[in-house]
Amino acid sequence: MRETVGREGGFMSETLTAWQLIASGDATLFAIVGLSLAVSLTAVVAAGIVGLPLGAILALTRFPGRAAMVVVLNGFMGLPPVVVGLSVYLLLSRSGPLGELGLLFTPTAMVTAQALLVLPIIAALTRHTVEDLWLEYREELSAMGVGWASRVATLLWDSRFSLVTVLLAGFGRAAAEVGTVMIVGGNIDGFTRTMTTTIALETSRGNLALAIGLGIILILLILLVNATAWGVRVWAVERAG
């Protein structure tokens, strides 16, 4: 009985300390949060630059092997993060083809890994969104003689609100990742340590206050991302109506 009470008291004490760290603007905690946001946002932007047009092109073109490419792209949406991390590690290691760049165990390597992780998600969801929109506007755009490149640009613009939710989904996936960034970033204190890797490390060390504080912020960020996606979707529906 005393052991149970002690554990509960310890948990409450650590949680209170975690909230105090957040409220006081603890420099270590918010430096980790800042790096995590910078890495994940940069990765999503990079993946979006490639994934949005790639998804639109797959939606609007027909070529040999397209079906296989779509299947592979959809399959890669569930690609194990550690496989992505291992692939980037081998690419950037000293014996790898890009080893001379010295990017391993840097934020750049983490951005690269996260971008590769969320790229299939963004591209596959974009393809689905643009393909549905193309079925709706095909006759109109064809009658107007709109060229292929203009079709891609037009449909991406018309589906921009849906694509915002796609990018937010990619950000949520990137921000919650631990295995990929642990492999290529090395979890170096003050340099490549993110929220998820710090939570894993500090929990193993028994420093639960910092781990809980970062966990609270991570949960709040994920809730904010989902609330924003829902708000954009509702606003787009009301605007269209």
Automatic annotation (TrEMBL):
The keyword Ion transport does not apply. One of its GO terms (biological process) is transmembrane transport. The chain crosses the membrane at residues 29-60, 67-92, 104-125, 161-188, 208-232. Residues 33-229 form the ABC transmembrane type-1 domain. It is a multi-pass membrane protein. It is found in: Cell membrane. The keyword Transmembrane helix applies. Its main location: membrane. GO terms for cellular component: plasma membrane. InterPro entries: ABC_perm_TupB-like, MetI-like, MetI-like_sf. It comes from Sinorhizobium medicae (strain WSM419). This is Binding-protein-dependent transport systems inner membrane component. Signal peptide: none annotated. Keywords: Membrane, Plasmid, Transmembrane, Transmembrane helix. NCBIfam families: ABC_perm1. It comes from the Bacteria.
